[in-house]
Amino acid sequence: MRKLLMMFLLVSTLALSGCGYNTLQAQDEQINASWAEVVNQYQRRADLVPNLVNTVKGYAIHEKEVLEAVTASRAKVGGIQVTPELVNDEQAFARFQAAQGELTSALSRLLVVAENYPQLKADANFRDLQAQLEGTENRITVARNRYIQAVKEYNITVRSFPTNLTAMLFGYKTKPTFTVENEKAISTPPKVDFGN
Question: Which distant-in-sequence residues (6+ apart) come within 8 Å of 20 by Cβ?
Fold first, then answer.
């Protein structure tokens, strides 16, 4: 009886060590850490927006529509409750991604407007904020890439045999990742017209 119990414990230990549970745990933690960095960088960008808008407002008083769009986009981003659980909810993740995309678009329009105001472009405060925004956008790109890589590794583990059995047993599901906002638009080649 004792030998049978020892044999069962040995087989159980060997089976559990190859089940992938620890790998799933480690990869899930990596996703959470990567996600925290993505959120941190997006928050950094959102924190720059009010200063940028106020600086532009002083010069570009006729651009009320653009300034309001940036402010509204930032408010929308701020209205989304960002928690670690957001990465487990595809719909909430999509809303987060859409709000961030809207803010990115509004900021791009704001910077285009700034090109029309030479005094604004010469303003040291604006140049500093613009440089900080560019640096933050680069940090966002790096953080998103790390998150995408962590999700890719995790999703492969969740979907691969035999760890997929462990994932099913413990309720681990694939996680959403960032996607291109308008995939159809970027797959369409640009039309070039040299005109007459």
Answer: 157, 162, 163, 166, 167
Q: Which domains does the chain have, with CATH numbers?
A: 22-176 (1.20.1440.20)
DSSP string, 140-152: HHHHHHHHHHHHH
Mean pLDDT of 72-89: 87
Round to whole Å and give the CA distance between 43 and 22: 32
How far apart CA 111 and CA 113 sit, in angstroms, is 5
Q: How far apart are the first and last CA of the chain?
A: 94
Provide the token pair at 174: 């694939």
User: In the chain, count of helices (H) and strands (E)?
Assistant: 8, 0
Residue 24 to residue 26: CA distance in whole angstroms: 6
Q: Which two tokens stand for residue 63?
A: 């651009």
pLDDT at position 173: 93
* Contact yes or no for 148/177 (Cβ under 8 A): yes
Mean pLDDT of 137-154: 95
